[in-house]
Amino acid sequence: MQTPGVPAPNHVPLTPLSLLDWAVTVYPRKTAVIYGDQRMDYAQYDARCRRLAAALVRRGLKPGQTVAAMLPNIPPMLEAHFGVPMAGGILNTINIRLDARTIAFILDHGEAKVLLTDTAFAPVIREALSLVKHKPLVVDIHDALGPGGDALGDVDYETLLAEGEPDFRWQWPASEMDTISLNYTSGTTGNPKGVLYHHRGAHQGAFSNIIACQMGQQPTYLWTLPMFHCNGWRFPWTLPAVAGTSVCLRAVDPAEIFYLLEAEKVTHFCGAPLVLNMLCNAPEANTLNLKQPVTAYVGGAAPPSSVIGALENIGIHVVHLYGLTETYGPSHYCAWQSEWDALDADARAEQTARQGVRYLTIEDSMVADPDTMEPVPMDGQTLGEIMVRGNSVMSGYLKNPDATEEAFRGGWYHTGDLAVWHADGYLEIKDRAKDIIISGGENISTIEVEDILYRHPAVLEAAVVSAPSERWGETPCAFVTLKSGKEDTTADEIIAWCKDNLAGFKVPRHIIFGELPKTSTGKIQKFVLRDQASDLDDSKVAHRSSKG
Ligand code: ADP
Predict the structure, then answer these.
(1) 308 or 256, which is more confident
(2) Model confidence pLDDT, tens digit, residues 240-295
(3) Could you name the CATH architecture of 17-25+39-199?
(4) Residue 410: how many CB atoms within 10 A of its CB?
(5) Nearest residue CA, atom 16 of ligand 1?
(6) What is the pLDDT at residue 176?
(7) What is the predicted pLDDT for the residue at 353?
(8) How far is the CA of 484 from the centre of ligand 1 (A)?
(9) CB-CB contact of 244 with 218 (8 Å)
(10) I need a surface site. Which of 130, 233, 267, 404 has the fewest CB within 10 A?
(11) What is the pLDDT of residue 538?
């Protein structure tokens, strides 16, 4: 029998922590992290992670306790991804755009013992700390490239690190199913749910990125995707496994991104469609001069085919990913088939706009009827719910057995996303179950209508939601942001475009112009728009525009 705490020769719990051990042994002098003028090699990066772990243990952190982090994509956020679990802790990254009440809920619900916080967030954190029932040890991070801000804490991050040894020996988790991180969902329908990730899933998910994203060795990865979102789709753990370089980025700014793509020879980055859309429409896109191949991974919402096309035009190859917080970020990707090489740009974009096939570490996925659990036919027509099971599926929701049971009913994780299954085994999302529009008994995919809107030359951003209709039950209502210089475009022109490209019942009855409300991860907040649309009724007004 194996003695607890002593590794067996032929079985060790899987954990992404061993990936950093590998990188520092093999490539100690390779640059691990770039931030502004700062450069850190793997030996330095590893030593700082160990210092953080040692200091947390000295300060009394016990295995299984939570360390929260309110940080942008700066080096301490990367260090927390290793340092916290090296101390046996659970990393709880917090969305930096949240309000004080929600942050306080998360700190209490996750029972954070320590909070790492950037001083830029002092106002909201001060308020959150005044609301919590149990105050964590607060560690302030003063980022020289940040805007500054009040120190609220008990200790500053560099002082804390100095308390720990750079050669701290971390313990393997007792079980690979131990929790490594805690990620709260957006909580648009009540309090957010705490999604638990285990070491095994994080290890497997980290590896599957290398394969699905064809990262090769020693890539340079730009941090355009927030690390607070699903642990940055696992990339903090992936990069040491390929001796990659992380280029940190405090805020998403197109000019800075284009500069870094060229100056740091970035090879890979990720983002939500709206971030990539913002890049395509930035003036710098016209003068981009890339000397290296660059691949952008897009997911988190359906990327309009026009956005994929625009990026390809400026020399950035796009791979489409799909997943959820509950699947540690991406669980599916649109794997390339060589036959697609021969297709024209439009036909190619049509293929790549599909959400595709499962990652290697998602052992099974299907599109099925959620009641009977029977897979739908692979006819590209029949709607069903995407279900997944595998090693990179959450352990469950923290302190919420009912929601966990509901999500796992029938032995599968239910995603809540509605899709069709094509004959080639690729799935294509039509909508989130709660977003789909049912008009006169017909399903309307808001993604399909948005895709057509995005192809209109004057449209910068678009979102479609349901509006109530006396006659049809629901009809589509479009919210549109126009490109600068195209503000004269009228609702009638947009509607005429839709009529030319869509079946009549799918054409939006209302076009409302203006800015679209977004989440911090670049998703449009459809519930806000649905609220606005709930006052509309197409039996009274047809084709109304907010411009009158
Ligand atoms: P939130 O619930 O805050 O939006 P998640 O990241 O968990 O955060 O959101 C996952 C959801 O985002 C999925 O259930 C799906 O509806 C949507 N999504 C993610 N990737 C894609 C994609 N490639 N195409 C369409 N929808 C996507």
Answers:
(1) 256
(2) 999 999 999 999 999 999 999 999 999 999 998 888 888 998 999 888 889 999 99
(3) 3-Layer(aba) Sandwich (3.40)
(4) 12
(5) 432
(6) 96
(7) 87
(8) 28
(9) yes
(10) 130
(11) 58
Q: Are strands 544-545 and 459-469 parallel, antiparallel or unpaired?
A: unpaired
pLDDT of residue 534: 87
Q: If you write DSSP's letter for every residue of 138-193 in order, what string do you get? A: EEEE--TTS------SSEEHHHHHHTS-TT--PPPPSSTTSEEEEEE---TTSSPP
Q: What is the mean pLDDT of the chain?
A: 92
Query: pTM of the predicted model, to two decimals?
Result: 0.90
- Cα 523 to ligand 1 centre (Å): 9
| Domain ranges across the chain | 17-25+39-199, 252-432, 437-547
For ligand 1, whether the C-beta of 98 sits within 6 Å is: no
If one residue of 188, 231, 324 were mutated to test the ligand 1 pocket, choosing by the most ligand atoms within 8 A of its CB, it would be 324
Atom nearest to 429 CA in ligand 1:
25
Q: Among 1.10.10.10, 3.30.300.30, 3.40.50.970, 1.20.1740.10, name the CATH number for the domain at 437-547.
A: 3.30.300.30
Instruction: Report CA(331)–ligand 1 centroid distance (Å).
Output: 11
Q: How far is 485 from 358, CA to CA, in rounded Å?
A: 42
Residue that wins the pLDDT comparison between 125 and 214: 125
Look up residue 259 and give its two tokens: 């500069």
Say if ligand 1 is within 6 A of residue 302 CB.
yes
pLDDT in tens, 446-503: 988 999 999 999 999 999 999 998 888 899 999 999 999 999 999 999 999 999 998 8
- Shortest-distance Cα residue to atom 12 of ligand 1: 300
Residue nearest to atom 1 of ligand 1 (CA): 186
> Which atom in ligand 1 lies closest to the alpha carbon of residue 416?
14
Atom of ligand 1 nearest to the CA of 185: 3
Query: Crossing angle of helices 199-212/17-26, nearest 10°?
Result: 50
Please give the number of the atom of ligand 1 that sits closest to the Cα of 519: 3
Q: Torsions phi, psi of 459, nearest 5?
A: -90, 125
Q: Is ligand 1 within 6 A of the CB of residue 30?
A: no
Q: Is any ligand 1 atom within 6 A of the Cβ of residue 489?
A: no
CA distance 71 to 93: 8
